[in-house]
Design a protein that fits this description.
The complex is a heterodimer of chains A (about 300) and B (about 350). Helix content of chain A is about 70%, strand content about 5%. With about 300 residues, chain A is an all-alpha fold. In chain B, helix 2 runs antiparallel to helix 10 and helix 11 packs across helix 12. Chain B is globular, with a radius of gyration of 20 Å. Classes of the chains: A mainly alpha (about 300), B mainly alpha (about 350).
Protein backbone atom coordinates (compact mmCIF):
# COMPACT_ATOMS: atom_id res chain seq x y z
CA UNK A 1 0.00 0.00 0.00
CA UNK A 2 2.83 2.34 0.93
CA UNK A 3 4.57 1.50 -2.33
CA UNK A 4 1.34 2.21 -4.18
CA UNK A 5 0.90 5.69 -2.74
CA UNK A 6 4.52 6.58 -3.34
CA UNK A 7 4.24 5.45 -6.97
CA UNK A 8 0.98 7.38 -7.30
CA UNK A 9 2.50 10.58 -5.91
CA UNK A 10 5.64 10.48 -8.02
CA UNK A 11 3.46 9.63 -11.04
CA UNK A 12 1.27 12.65 -10.38
CA UNK A 13 4.34 14.88 -10.02
CA UNK A 14 5.79 13.67 -13.35
CA UNK A 15 2.31 13.75 -14.86
CA UNK A 16 1.74 17.37 -13.89
CA UNK A 17 4.92 18.33 -15.77
CA UNK A 18 3.64 16.45 -18.84
CA UNK A 19 0.20 18.00 -18.33
CA UNK A 20 1.39 21.60 -18.41
CA UNK A 21 3.45 21.03 -21.56
CA UNK A 22 0.53 19.10 -23.09
CA UNK A 23 -1.74 22.04 -22.35
CA UNK A 24 0.76 24.35 -24.06
CA UNK A 25 0.61 22.15 -27.16
CA UNK A 26 -3.18 22.08 -27.13
CA UNK A 27 -3.39 25.88 -26.77
CA UNK A 28 -1.52 26.36 -30.04
CA UNK A 29 -3.05 23.34 -31.78
CA UNK A 30 -6.62 24.42 -31.08
CA UNK A 31 -6.05 27.87 -32.54
CA UNK A 32 -4.01 26.98 -35.63
CA UNK A 33 -3.98 23.17 -36.14
CA UNK A 34 -0.21 23.36 -35.83
CA UNK A 35 1.77 21.11 -33.52
CA UNK A 36 4.52 23.28 -32.12
CA UNK A 37 7.58 21.03 -32.19
CA UNK A 38 9.64 23.78 -30.58
CA UNK A 39 7.48 23.71 -27.43
CA UNK A 40 9.93 21.52 -25.53
CA UNK A 41 12.97 23.53 -26.61
CA UNK A 42 11.20 26.79 -25.71
CA UNK A 43 10.64 25.34 -22.22
CA UNK A 44 14.28 24.24 -22.04
CA UNK A 45 15.52 27.67 -23.16
CA UNK A 46 13.43 29.57 -20.60
CA UNK A 47 14.67 27.19 -17.89
CA UNK A 48 18.22 28.20 -18.86
CA UNK A 49 17.12 31.83 -18.49
CA UNK A 50 15.92 31.02 -14.96
CA UNK A 51 19.29 29.37 -14.34
CA UNK A 52 21.08 32.51 -15.53
CA UNK A 53 18.93 34.69 -13.25
CA UNK A 54 19.70 32.42 -10.31
CA UNK A 55 23.44 32.06 -10.79
CA UNK A 56 24.78 35.13 -12.59
CA UNK A 57 24.63 38.51 -10.90
CA UNK A 58 22.37 40.96 -12.74
CA UNK A 59 22.59 44.60 -11.68
CA UNK A 60 24.94 43.57 -8.89
CA UNK A 61 23.04 40.70 -7.27
CA UNK A 62 21.48 37.32 -8.11
CA UNK A 63 17.80 36.63 -7.59
CA UNK A 64 16.47 34.14 -5.08
CA UNK A 65 14.25 31.29 -6.28
CA UNK A 66 10.70 32.67 -6.33
CA UNK A 67 11.50 36.14 -7.76
CA UNK A 68 13.56 34.37 -10.45
CA UNK A 69 10.62 32.01 -11.07
CA UNK A 70 8.17 34.84 -11.74
CA UNK A 71 10.64 36.97 -13.72
CA UNK A 72 11.24 33.89 -15.90
CA UNK A 73 7.51 33.48 -16.47
CA UNK A 74 7.30 37.12 -17.61
CA UNK A 75 10.31 36.69 -19.91
CA UNK A 76 8.80 33.47 -21.27
CA UNK A 77 5.58 35.29 -22.12
CA UNK A 78 7.39 38.02 -24.05
CA UNK A 79 9.58 35.36 -25.68
CA UNK A 80 6.53 33.36 -26.85
CA UNK A 81 4.72 36.41 -28.21
CA UNK A 82 7.92 37.55 -29.92
CA UNK A 83 8.54 34.17 -31.60
CA UNK A 84 5.00 34.13 -32.96
CA UNK A 85 5.32 37.70 -34.31
CA UNK A 86 8.77 37.29 -35.84
CA UNK A 87 8.90 33.66 -37.00
CA UNK A 88 5.35 32.36 -37.42
CA UNK A 89 3.40 35.49 -38.45
CA UNK A 90 5.12 35.83 -41.87
CA UNK A 91 3.90 32.29 -42.67
CA UNK A 92 0.27 33.12 -41.85
CA UNK A 93 -0.89 32.29 -45.37
CA UNK A 94 1.38 29.28 -45.84
CA UNK A 95 0.20 25.69 -45.43
CA UNK A 96 0.12 23.88 -42.09
CA UNK A 97 3.10 21.77 -43.17
CA UNK A 98 5.23 24.86 -43.81
CA UNK A 99 4.42 26.22 -40.34
CA UNK A 100 5.24 22.84 -38.79
CA UNK A 101 8.61 22.92 -40.60
CA UNK A 102 9.18 26.42 -39.20
CA UNK A 103 8.60 25.15 -35.65
CA UNK A 104 11.10 22.36 -36.37
CA UNK A 105 13.60 25.03 -37.49
CA UNK A 106 12.94 26.82 -34.18
CA UNK A 107 13.58 23.56 -32.31
CA UNK A 108 16.98 23.22 -34.00
CA UNK A 109 17.92 26.89 -33.45
CA UNK A 110 16.96 26.97 -29.75
CA UNK A 111 18.70 23.66 -29.07
CA UNK A 112 21.87 24.95 -30.74
CA UNK A 113 21.69 28.34 -29.03
CA UNK A 114 21.37 26.79 -25.57
CA UNK A 115 24.42 24.58 -26.16
CA UNK A 116 26.29 27.55 -27.62
CA UNK A 117 25.56 29.97 -24.77
CA UNK A 118 25.58 27.66 -21.76
CA UNK A 119 27.58 24.63 -23.06
CA UNK A 120 25.91 21.22 -23.48
CA UNK A 121 27.07 19.78 -20.12
CA UNK A 122 24.48 18.74 -17.54
CA UNK A 123 23.86 21.43 -14.93
CA UNK A 124 22.36 21.25 -11.49
CA UNK A 125 19.15 23.26 -11.16
CA UNK A 126 17.92 24.15 -7.66
CA UNK A 127 14.53 23.12 -6.33
CA UNK A 128 12.44 25.39 -4.09
CA UNK A 129 11.24 22.35 -2.16
CA UNK A 130 13.13 20.37 0.51
CA UNK A 131 14.17 16.80 -0.25
CA UNK A 132 12.61 15.53 2.99
CA UNK A 133 9.29 13.69 3.22
CA UNK A 134 6.11 13.84 5.25
CA UNK A 135 5.02 10.63 6.91
CA UNK A 136 1.26 10.17 6.81
CA UNK A 137 0.02 6.84 8.16
CA UNK A 138 3.28 5.08 7.34
CA UNK A 139 3.39 6.47 3.79
CA UNK A 140 6.34 8.68 2.87
CA UNK A 141 5.15 11.61 0.78
CA UNK A 142 7.92 13.50 -0.97
CA UNK A 143 7.72 17.28 -0.51
CA UNK A 144 9.45 17.68 -3.87
CA UNK A 145 6.71 15.70 -5.67
CA UNK A 146 3.89 17.45 -3.82
CA UNK A 147 5.38 20.87 -4.53
CA UNK A 148 5.86 20.13 -8.24
CA UNK A 149 2.29 18.88 -8.49
CA UNK A 150 0.92 21.92 -6.60
CA UNK A 151 2.83 24.61 -8.53
CA UNK A 152 2.07 23.13 -11.94
CA UNK A 153 -1.61 22.66 -11.28
CA UNK A 154 -1.86 26.17 -9.77
CA UNK A 155 -0.51 27.64 -13.00
CA UNK A 156 -2.94 25.56 -15.05
CA UNK A 157 -5.81 26.71 -12.78
CA UNK A 158 -4.86 30.39 -13.18
CA UNK A 159 -4.88 29.95 -16.94
CA UNK A 160 -8.29 28.24 -16.77
CA UNK A 161 -9.71 31.16 -14.72
CA UNK A 162 -8.35 33.55 -17.34
CA UNK A 163 -10.04 31.71 -20.22
CA UNK A 164 -13.28 31.21 -18.31
CA UNK A 165 -13.85 34.60 -16.69
CA UNK A 166 -12.14 37.35 -18.69
CA UNK A 167 -13.26 39.08 -21.87
CA UNK A 168 -9.87 38.48 -23.47
CA UNK A 169 -10.13 34.80 -22.60
CA UNK A 170 -13.54 34.65 -24.25
CA UNK A 171 -12.14 36.36 -27.36
CA UNK A 172 -9.31 33.82 -27.50
CA UNK A 173 -11.75 30.93 -27.26
CA UNK A 174 -13.88 32.50 -29.98
CA UNK A 175 -10.86 32.97 -32.20
CA UNK A 176 -9.97 29.29 -31.81
CA UNK A 177 -13.47 27.99 -32.53
CA UNK A 178 -14.25 30.14 -35.55
CA UNK A 179 -11.54 32.60 -36.60
CA UNK A 180 -13.55 34.07 -39.45
CA UNK A 181 -16.65 34.88 -37.38
CA UNK A 182 -14.50 36.21 -34.55
CA UNK A 183 -12.69 38.51 -36.96
CA UNK A 184 -16.01 39.81 -38.31
CA UNK A 185 -17.04 40.64 -34.76
CA UNK A 186 -13.97 42.78 -34.30
CA UNK A 187 -11.62 40.34 -32.56
CA UNK A 188 -8.01 40.82 -33.62
CA UNK A 189 -7.35 37.11 -34.14
CA UNK A 190 -3.76 37.51 -35.31
CA UNK A 191 -2.70 39.11 -32.01
CA UNK A 192 -4.68 36.52 -30.07
CA UNK A 193 -2.54 33.82 -31.71
CA UNK A 194 0.55 35.65 -30.43
CA UNK A 195 -1.05 35.77 -26.98
CA UNK A 196 -1.66 32.01 -27.22
CA UNK A 197 2.04 31.47 -27.99
CA UNK A 198 2.87 33.63 -24.97
CA UNK A 199 0.74 31.54 -22.62
CA UNK A 200 2.09 28.33 -24.11
CA UNK A 201 5.63 29.56 -23.47
CA UNK A 202 4.71 30.36 -19.83
CA UNK A 203 3.29 26.85 -19.32
CA UNK A 204 6.42 25.42 -20.91
CA UNK A 205 8.62 27.46 -18.58
CA UNK A 206 6.73 26.08 -15.58
CA UNK A 207 7.17 22.49 -16.77
CA UNK A 208 10.85 23.11 -17.53
CA UNK A 209 11.63 24.66 -14.16
CA UNK A 210 9.74 21.91 -12.35
CA UNK A 211 11.41 19.05 -14.23
CA UNK A 212 14.98 20.45 -14.16
CA UNK A 213 15.73 19.71 -10.43
CA UNK A 214 15.19 15.96 -10.93
CA UNK A 215 16.24 15.58 -14.59
CA UNK A 216 19.09 18.14 -14.58
CA UNK A 217 19.49 21.03 -16.96
CA UNK A 218 20.73 20.21 -20.48
CA UNK A 219 19.82 21.25 -24.04
CA UNK A 220 18.04 17.92 -24.62
CA UNK A 221 16.24 17.78 -21.25
CA UNK A 222 12.77 18.45 -22.67
CA UNK A 223 12.84 16.16 -25.73
CA UNK A 224 11.52 13.14 -23.86
CA UNK A 225 9.13 15.31 -21.83
CA UNK A 226 7.73 16.71 -25.09
CA UNK A 227 6.94 13.18 -26.28
CA UNK A 228 5.27 12.29 -22.99
CA UNK A 229 3.29 15.52 -23.31
CA UNK A 230 2.31 14.62 -26.90
CA UNK A 231 1.20 11.18 -25.77
CA UNK A 232 -0.72 12.71 -22.86
CA UNK A 233 -2.37 15.28 -25.12
CA UNK A 234 -3.38 12.62 -27.65
CA UNK A 235 -4.64 10.40 -24.83
CA UNK A 236 -6.92 13.20 -23.62
CA UNK A 237 -7.73 14.52 -27.08
CA UNK A 238 -5.69 17.18 -28.85
CA UNK A 239 -8.76 19.41 -29.06
CA UNK A 240 -9.50 19.41 -25.37
CA UNK A 241 -7.55 21.42 -22.71
CA UNK A 242 -9.16 19.43 -19.86
CA UNK A 243 -8.29 16.25 -21.73
CA UNK A 244 -4.65 17.34 -22.13
CA UNK A 245 -4.26 17.88 -18.38
CA UNK A 246 -6.04 14.63 -17.52
CA UNK A 247 -4.10 12.75 -20.21
CA UNK A 248 -0.75 14.10 -18.97
CA UNK A 249 -1.52 13.18 -15.36
CA UNK A 250 -2.87 9.78 -16.40
CA UNK A 251 0.23 8.98 -18.44
CA UNK A 252 2.51 10.02 -15.56
CA UNK A 253 0.68 7.71 -13.15
CA UNK A 254 0.56 4.86 -15.68
CA UNK A 255 4.33 5.03 -16.32
CA UNK A 256 5.08 5.25 -12.60
CA UNK A 257 2.85 2.25 -11.83
CA UNK A 258 4.36 0.19 -14.66
CA UNK A 259 7.85 1.06 -13.42
CA UNK A 260 6.94 -0.01 -9.88
CA UNK A 261 4.96 -3.19 -10.48
CA UNK A 262 5.95 -4.54 -13.90
CA UNK A 263 9.62 -5.40 -13.66
CA UNK A 264 10.50 -5.77 -17.35
CA UNK A 265 9.56 -2.09 -17.74
CA UNK A 266 12.89 -0.46 -16.89
CA UNK A 267 13.42 3.32 -17.22
CA UNK A 268 14.71 2.78 -20.79
CA UNK A 269 11.28 1.46 -21.75
CA UNK A 270 9.34 4.53 -20.57
CA UNK A 271 9.48 6.15 -24.01
CA UNK A 272 8.60 3.03 -26.01
CA UNK A 273 5.64 2.50 -23.64
CA UNK A 274 4.52 6.10 -24.21
CA UNK A 275 4.80 5.56 -27.97
CA UNK A 276 2.74 2.38 -27.64
CA UNK A 277 0.06 4.26 -25.67
CA UNK A 278 0.07 6.93 -28.39
CA UNK A 279 -0.40 4.38 -31.20
CA UNK A 280 -3.06 2.38 -29.38
CA UNK A 281 -5.05 5.53 -28.58
CA UNK A 282 -4.79 6.70 -32.19
CA UNK A 283 -5.97 3.30 -33.35
CA UNK A 284 -8.88 2.82 -30.96
CA UNK A 285 -10.05 6.32 -30.24
CA UNK A 286 -8.32 8.83 -32.54
CA UNK A 287 -10.06 11.82 -30.98
CA UNK A 288 -8.80 10.91 -27.50
CA UNK A 289 -10.84 10.30 -24.40
CA UNK A 290 -12.21 13.83 -24.08
CA UNK A 291 -12.03 14.79 -27.76
CA UNK A 292 -14.85 15.46 -30.16
CA UNK A 293 -14.89 13.34 -33.30
CA UNK A 294 -14.43 15.50 -36.38
CA UNK A 295 -16.29 14.11 -39.37
CA UNK A 296 -14.89 14.83 -42.80
CA UNK A 297 -17.33 14.66 -45.64
CA UNK A 298 -16.00 12.86 -48.69
CA UNK B 1 13.38 13.62 -64.18
CA UNK B 2 11.22 14.61 -67.13
CA UNK B 3 11.71 13.24 -70.64
CA UNK B 4 15.00 13.72 -72.45
CA UNK B 5 16.36 16.29 -69.99
CA UNK B 6 15.81 13.85 -67.16
CA UNK B 7 17.84 11.08 -68.83
CA UNK B 8 20.57 13.58 -69.79
CA UNK B 9 20.66 14.77 -66.18
CA UNK B 10 21.01 11.19 -64.92
CA UNK B 11 23.86 10.60 -67.38
CA UNK B 12 25.60 13.74 -66.06
CA UNK B 13 25.16 12.40 -62.51
CA UNK B 14 26.75 9.06 -63.46
CA UNK B 15 29.70 10.85 -65.09
CA UNK B 16 30.11 13.08 -62.01
CA UNK B 17 30.09 10.01 -59.76
CA UNK B 18 32.83 8.39 -61.87
CA UNK B 19 35.02 11.52 -62.03
CA UNK B 20 34.64 12.78 -58.44
CA UNK B 21 36.98 10.26 -56.70
CA UNK B 22 39.69 10.90 -59.31
CA UNK B 23 39.78 14.57 -58.29
CA UNK B 24 39.48 14.01 -54.53
CA UNK B 25 41.73 13.08 -51.66
CA UNK B 26 40.97 9.85 -49.79
CA UNK B 27 39.32 11.80 -46.98
CA UNK B 28 37.12 13.77 -49.40
CA UNK B 29 36.20 10.54 -51.19
CA UNK B 30 35.15 9.06 -47.85
CA UNK B 31 32.94 12.12 -47.20
CA UNK B 32 31.41 11.81 -50.68
CA UNK B 33 30.59 8.17 -49.89
CA UNK B 34 28.36 9.49 -47.09
CA UNK B 35 26.68 11.84 -49.56
CA UNK B 36 25.66 8.72 -51.49
CA UNK B 37 24.40 7.07 -48.29
CA UNK B 38 22.36 10.10 -47.27
CA UNK B 39 21.04 10.34 -50.84
CA UNK B 40 19.52 6.86 -50.46
CA UNK B 41 17.81 7.83 -47.19
CA UNK B 42 16.59 11.17 -48.60
CA UNK B 43 15.17 9.53 -51.74
CA UNK B 44 13.12 7.28 -49.45
CA UNK B 45 11.96 9.99 -47.09
CA UNK B 46 11.11 12.16 -50.10
CA UNK B 47 8.64 9.51 -51.29
CA UNK B 48 6.84 9.94 -47.97
CA UNK B 49 7.27 13.69 -47.37
CA UNK B 50 7.70 15.20 -50.81
CA UNK B 51 5.37 12.98 -52.81
CA UNK B 52 2.79 11.89 -50.22
CA UNK B 53 2.90 15.02 -48.04
CA UNK B 54 3.48 13.24 -44.71
CA UNK B 55 6.12 14.70 -42.39
CA UNK B 56 8.28 12.19 -40.53
CA UNK B 57 10.69 13.11 -37.77
CA UNK B 58 11.75 9.54 -37.17
CA UNK B 59 13.50 8.18 -40.25
CA UNK B 60 16.95 8.33 -38.67
CA UNK B 61 15.76 5.42 -36.55
CA UNK B 62 14.97 3.36 -39.67
CA UNK B 63 18.55 3.99 -40.80
CA UNK B 64 19.47 2.76 -37.33
CA UNK B 65 17.46 -0.45 -37.76
CA UNK B 66 19.20 -1.13 -41.08
CA UNK B 67 22.60 -0.43 -39.52
CA UNK B 68 21.96 -2.82 -36.62
CA UNK B 69 20.71 -5.57 -38.95
CA UNK B 70 23.89 -5.31 -41.00
CA UNK B 71 26.11 -5.14 -37.93
CA UNK B 72 24.51 -8.09 -36.14
CA UNK B 73 24.57 -10.27 -39.28
CA UNK B 74 28.22 -9.45 -40.02
CA UNK B 75 29.57 -9.59 -36.47
CA UNK B 76 27.49 -12.38 -34.90
CA UNK B 77 26.63 -14.51 -37.93
CA UNK B 78 29.61 -13.96 -40.22
CA UNK B 79 27.69 -12.73 -43.27
CA UNK B 80 29.34 -10.95 -46.18
CA UNK B 81 28.59 -7.26 -45.51
CA UNK B 82 27.18 -6.51 -48.99
CA UNK B 83 24.71 -9.40 -48.77
CA UNK B 84 23.19 -7.94 -45.60
CA UNK B 85 22.03 -4.77 -47.38
CA UNK B 86 18.80 -6.13 -48.91
CA UNK B 87 17.88 -7.65 -45.56
CA UNK B 88 18.67 -4.38 -43.75
CA UNK B 89 16.24 -2.66 -46.10
CA UNK B 90 13.56 -5.31 -45.73
CA UNK B 91 13.66 -5.41 -41.92
CA UNK B 92 13.53 -1.60 -41.72
CA UNK B 93 10.75 -1.59 -44.33
CA UNK B 94 8.70 -4.10 -42.33
CA UNK B 95 9.22 -2.01 -39.18
CA UNK B 96 8.05 1.02 -41.17
CA UNK B 97 4.94 -0.84 -42.37
CA UNK B 98 4.16 -2.01 -38.83
CA UNK B 99 4.47 1.54 -37.54
CA UNK B 100 2.69 3.10 -40.50
CA UNK B 101 -0.31 0.79 -40.20
CA UNK B 102 -1.81 2.54 -37.17
CA UNK B 103 -0.02 5.88 -37.53
CA UNK B 104 -0.90 6.80 -41.10
CA UNK B 105 -4.65 6.61 -40.54
CA UNK B 106 -4.46 10.10 -39.15
CA UNK B 107 -3.96 13.54 -40.57
CA UNK B 108 -0.59 15.30 -40.84
CA UNK B 109 0.17 16.63 -37.37
CA UNK B 110 -0.70 13.35 -35.61
CA UNK B 111 1.67 11.38 -37.82
CA UNK B 112 4.49 13.90 -37.38
CA UNK B 113 4.17 13.83 -33.60
CA UNK B 114 4.02 10.04 -33.47
CA UNK B 115 7.17 9.74 -35.60
CA UNK B 116 8.97 12.19 -33.29
CA UNK B 117 8.87 9.46 -30.63
CA UNK B 118 10.54 6.79 -32.83
CA UNK B 119 14.22 7.82 -32.51
CA UNK B 120 14.03 8.26 -28.73
CA UNK B 121 12.12 4.99 -28.29
CA UNK B 122 14.60 3.22 -30.57
CA UNK B 123 17.50 4.35 -28.36
CA UNK B 124 15.59 3.12 -25.29
CA UNK B 125 15.00 -0.30 -26.88
CA UNK B 126 18.66 -0.64 -27.90
CA UNK B 127 19.72 -0.05 -24.31
CA UNK B 128 17.06 -2.38 -22.90
CA UNK B 129 18.25 -5.46 -24.82
CA UNK B 130 22.06 -5.26 -24.60
CA UNK B 131 22.76 -8.97 -25.20
CA UNK B 132 21.36 -8.52 -28.71
CA UNK B 133 22.43 -4.97 -29.60
CA UNK B 134 25.58 -4.47 -27.54
CA UNK B 135 23.83 -1.96 -25.28
CA UNK B 136 25.32 1.51 -24.79
CA UNK B 137 28.74 0.33 -26.00
CA UNK B 138 27.35 -0.76 -29.35
CA UNK B 139 29.15 -3.08 -31.74
CA UNK B 140 32.32 -2.84 -33.78
CA UNK B 141 32.44 -4.02 -37.39
CA UNK B 142 35.61 -5.04 -39.24
CA UNK B 143 36.90 -2.46 -41.75
CA UNK B 144 35.26 -3.05 -45.12
CA UNK B 145 37.54 -4.96 -47.50
CA UNK B 146 37.32 -4.64 -51.25
CA UNK B 147 35.84 -7.72 -52.87
CA UNK B 148 35.47 -9.38 -56.29
CA UNK B 149 39.25 -9.40 -56.79
CA UNK B 150 39.42 -5.60 -56.72
CA UNK B 151 42.23 -4.18 -54.58
CA UNK B 152 41.72 -0.61 -53.48
CA UNK B 153 41.75 1.73 -50.55
CA UNK B 154 38.80 1.15 -48.12
CA UNK B 155 37.57 4.77 -48.58
CA UNK B 156 37.46 4.38 -52.35
CA UNK B 157 35.80 0.96 -52.01
CA UNK B 158 33.09 2.40 -49.73
CA UNK B 159 32.60 5.27 -52.18
CA UNK B 160 31.95 2.93 -55.09
CA UNK B 161 29.69 0.61 -53.14
CA UNK B 162 27.55 3.48 -51.77
CA UNK B 163 27.22 5.29 -55.07
CA UNK B 164 26.42 2.19 -57.13
CA UNK B 165 23.70 1.33 -54.60
CA UNK B 166 22.58 4.99 -54.58
CA UNK B 167 22.24 5.11 -58.37
CA UNK B 168 20.24 1.87 -58.38
CA UNK B 169 17.98 3.26 -55.64
CA UNK B 170 17.64 6.52 -57.61
CA UNK B 171 16.26 4.57 -60.58
CA UNK B 172 14.02 2.58 -58.25
CA UNK B 173 12.63 5.79 -56.72
CA UNK B 174 12.08 7.15 -60.23
CA UNK B 175 10.11 4.03 -61.21
CA UNK B 176 8.04 4.24 -58.01
CA UNK B 177 7.00 7.88 -58.33
CA UNK B 178 6.35 8.13 -62.07
CA UNK B 179 3.68 5.46 -62.55
CA UNK B 180 0.16 4.86 -61.37
CA UNK B 181 1.27 4.42 -57.76
CA UNK B 182 3.21 7.70 -57.91
CA UNK B 183 0.07 9.52 -59.03
CA UNK B 184 -1.85 7.95 -56.15
CA UNK B 185 0.81 9.24 -53.74
CA UNK B 186 0.55 12.76 -55.13
CA UNK B 187 -3.23 12.73 -55.07
CA UNK B 188 -3.09 11.96 -51.33
CA UNK B 189 -0.70 14.88 -50.88
CA UNK B 190 -2.74 17.36 -52.92
CA UNK B 191 -6.20 16.52 -51.60
CA UNK B 192 -7.04 13.54 -49.44
CA UNK B 193 -10.73 14.12 -50.04
CA UNK B 194 -10.39 14.15 -53.83
CA UNK B 195 -8.11 11.10 -53.64
CA UNK B 196 -10.68 9.14 -51.62
CA UNK B 197 -13.41 10.19 -54.01
CA UNK B 198 -11.31 8.87 -56.91
CA UNK B 199 -11.05 5.47 -55.27
CA UNK B 200 -7.55 5.82 -53.77
CA UNK B 201 -7.23 4.16 -50.37
CA UNK B 202 -5.47 7.01 -48.57
CA UNK B 203 -4.56 5.00 -45.46
CA UNK B 204 -3.23 2.14 -47.61
CA UNK B 205 -1.18 4.43 -49.83
CA UNK B 206 0.27 6.29 -46.86
CA UNK B 207 1.18 3.05 -45.08
CA UNK B 208 2.87 1.69 -48.20
CA UNK B 209 4.75 4.98 -48.70
CA UNK B 210 5.88 4.75 -45.08
CA UNK B 211 7.14 1.19 -45.62
CA UNK B 212 8.95 2.08 -48.86
CA UNK B 213 10.62 5.11 -47.29
CA UNK B 214 11.74 2.99 -44.33
CA UNK B 215 13.15 0.39 -46.78
CA UNK B 216 15.31 3.06 -48.46
CA UNK B 217 16.49 4.33 -45.08
CA UNK B 218 17.30 0.76 -43.97
CA UNK B 219 19.53 0.18 -47.01
CA UNK B 220 21.22 3.54 -46.38
CA UNK B 221 21.66 2.62 -42.72
CA UNK B 222 23.28 -0.72 -43.59
CA UNK B 223 25.81 1.09 -45.80
CA UNK B 224 26.31 3.65 -43.03
CA UNK B 225 27.28 0.88 -40.59
CA UNK B 226 29.73 -0.63 -43.09
CA UNK B 227 31.27 2.82 -43.67
CA UNK B 228 31.67 3.96 -40.05
CA UNK B 229 32.48 0.36 -38.84
CA UNK B 230 30.84 1.13 -35.51
CA UNK B 231 27.26 1.45 -34.27
CA UNK B 232 25.94 2.44 -30.86
CA UNK B 233 22.69 4.07 -29.67
CA UNK B 234 24.17 7.57 -30.14
CA UNK B 235 24.94 6.97 -33.82
CA UNK B 236 21.30 7.62 -34.76
CA UNK B 237 20.10 10.49 -32.53
CA UNK B 238 16.95 12.49 -33.09
CA UNK B 239 19.15 15.19 -34.65
CA UNK B 240 19.84 12.86 -37.59
CA UNK B 241 16.11 12.38 -38.21
CA UNK B 242 15.59 16.14 -38.16
CA UNK B 243 18.59 16.70 -40.42
CA UNK B 244 17.15 14.25 -42.98
CA UNK B 245 13.88 16.19 -43.04
CA UNK B 246 15.80 19.46 -43.40
CA UNK B 247 17.72 17.90 -46.31
CA UNK B 248 14.40 17.15 -48.04
CA UNK B 249 13.14 20.72 -47.67
CA UNK B 250 16.40 22.32 -48.75
CA UNK B 251 16.84 19.97 -51.70
CA UNK B 252 13.27 20.51 -52.80
CA UNK B 253 10.47 18.27 -51.56
CA UNK B 254 8.96 16.27 -54.41
CA UNK B 255 12.07 16.48 -56.60
CA UNK B 256 14.35 13.45 -56.99
CA UNK B 257 17.33 15.35 -58.39
CA UNK B 258 17.01 17.97 -55.64
CA UNK B 259 17.89 15.22 -53.15
CA UNK B 260 21.50 15.26 -54.42
CA UNK B 261 21.82 18.81 -53.08
CA UNK B 262 19.96 17.76 -49.93
CA UNK B 263 22.46 14.93 -49.37
CA UNK B 264 25.45 17.27 -49.91
CA UNK B 265 23.88 19.61 -47.34
CA UNK B 266 23.32 16.83 -44.78
CA UNK B 267 26.94 15.66 -45.06
CA UNK B 268 28.70 19.03 -45.17
CA UNK B 269 26.61 21.51 -43.13
CA UNK B 270 27.75 20.31 -39.72
CA UNK B 271 31.49 20.12 -40.19
CA UNK B 272 32.30 22.22 -43.26
CA UNK B 273 29.66 24.69 -44.43
CA UNK B 274 28.24 25.73 -41.04
CA UNK B 275 31.58 26.77 -39.48
CA UNK B 276 32.61 28.42 -42.76
CA UNK B 277 29.45 30.55 -42.76
CA UNK B 278 30.00 31.47 -39.13
CA UNK B 279 33.61 32.47 -39.81
CA UNK B 280 32.28 35.22 -42.08
CA UNK B 281 30.52 36.72 -39.06
CA UNK B 282 33.25 36.06 -36.52
CA UNK B 283 35.50 38.57 -38.26
CA UNK B 284 32.97 41.28 -37.35
CA UNK B 285 31.91 40.13 -33.90
CA UNK B 286 34.25 38.17 -31.69
CA UNK B 287 32.32 34.98 -31.22
CA UNK B 288 33.50 31.43 -30.76
CA UNK B 289 32.39 29.78 -34.00
CA UNK B 290 33.64 26.32 -33.04
CA UNK B 291 31.46 26.11 -29.94
CA UNK B 292 29.05 23.16 -29.69
CA UNK B 293 25.63 24.04 -31.02
CA UNK B 294 26.87 26.76 -33.39
CA UNK B 295 26.36 24.70 -36.55
CA UNK B 296 22.86 23.74 -35.35
CA UNK B 297 21.99 27.43 -35.14
CA UNK B 298 23.32 27.98 -38.65
CA UNK B 299 21.32 25.21 -40.25
CA UNK B 300 18.17 26.11 -38.33
CA UNK B 301 18.41 29.66 -39.62
CA UNK B 302 19.14 28.43 -43.15
CA UNK B 303 16.04 26.21 -42.99
CA UNK B 304 13.90 29.11 -41.79
CA UNK B 305 15.17 31.41 -44.55
CA UNK B 306 14.52 28.73 -47.18
CA UNK B 307 10.94 28.36 -45.91
CA UNK B 308 10.41 32.11 -46.34
CA UNK B 309 12.30 32.74 -49.56
CA UNK B 310 12.35 29.51 -51.56
CA UNK B 311 9.84 27.00 -50.20
CA UNK B 312 10.57 24.73 -53.18
CA UNK B 313 14.22 24.32 -52.12
CA UNK B 314 17.25 24.08 -54.40
CA UNK B 315 15.36 22.18 -57.09
CA UNK B 316 12.77 24.97 -57.18
CA UNK B 317 15.47 27.62 -57.57
CA UNK B 318 17.06 25.75 -60.47
CA UNK B 319 13.67 25.39 -62.16
CA UNK B 320 13.06 29.09 -61.63
CA UNK B 321 16.32 29.93 -63.40
CA UNK B 322 15.60 27.53 -66.27
CA UNK B 323 11.94 28.39 -66.85
CA UNK B 324 11.64 31.87 -65.38
CA UNK B 325 8.64 30.76 -63.34
CA UNK B 326 8.55 30.51 -59.57
CA UNK B 327 8.05 26.94 -58.38
CA UNK B 328 6.05 26.35 -55.24
CA UNK B 329 7.08 23.39 -53.10
CA UNK B 330 4.81 20.50 -53.96
CA UNK B 331 4.02 19.79 -50.35
CA UNK B 332 3.62 23.46 -49.41
CA UNK B 333 0.93 24.01 -52.04
CA UNK B 334 -1.72 22.21 -50.06
CA UNK B 335 -3.41 24.96 -48.08
CA UNK B 336 -5.45 24.77 -44.91
CA UNK B 337 -8.45 22.48 -45.35
CA UNK B 338 -11.50 24.65 -46.00
CA UNK B 339 -13.98 24.89 -43.15
CA UNK B 340 -16.72 23.23 -45.21
CA UNK B 341 -14.91 19.90 -44.97
CA UNK B 342 -15.71 19.67 -41.32
CA UNK B 343 -19.24 19.02 -40.21
Amino acid sequence: MQQFFQALMSGLADGSIYASLALALVLIYKATEVINFAQGEMAMFTTYIAYALLTHPHFGHTLSYWPAFFVTLAIAFVFGVGLQRVVIKPLERASVLTVVMATIALLVILNGLAAWIWSPELKFFPSPFPTSTWVVGGVHISKQDTGTFGVTLACVAVLWLFFRFTKLGLAMRAGAVNPLAARLLGVRTSWLLALGWGFAAVLGAVSGMMSAPTNFLSPSMMQAVLIFAFAGAVLGGLESPVGAVAGGLGLGVLLSMLGTYVHPVTPELRLPVALLVLLVVLLIRPAGIFGRVVVRRV
Amino acid sequence: MRGRWGYAGFAVLVVAVVIAPLLSTNYRTFQLAFVGIYLIALLGLNILTGFTGQISLGHGAFMGIGAYVTTILVVDHGWNDLLTLPLAGIVAGLAGLAFGLPATRFAGPYLALATFAIPLSFIGLLKRFPHFTGGTLGKQLPTAQSQFGIHTNPSVWIYWVSWIVALVMFLLAFLIVRGRFGRALQSVRDSEIAATASGVSTAGVKTLAFGISAFFCGVGGGLFAIAVTYVNPDTFPIDLSILLLVGIVLGGAGSLSGMIFGALFVEFIRITWGPALLDLFSQVHHINTRAPGSSLVVYGVVLLLVLYVAPAGAAGLVRRVLTGKAAVAAWAKQGRAPAEDQV
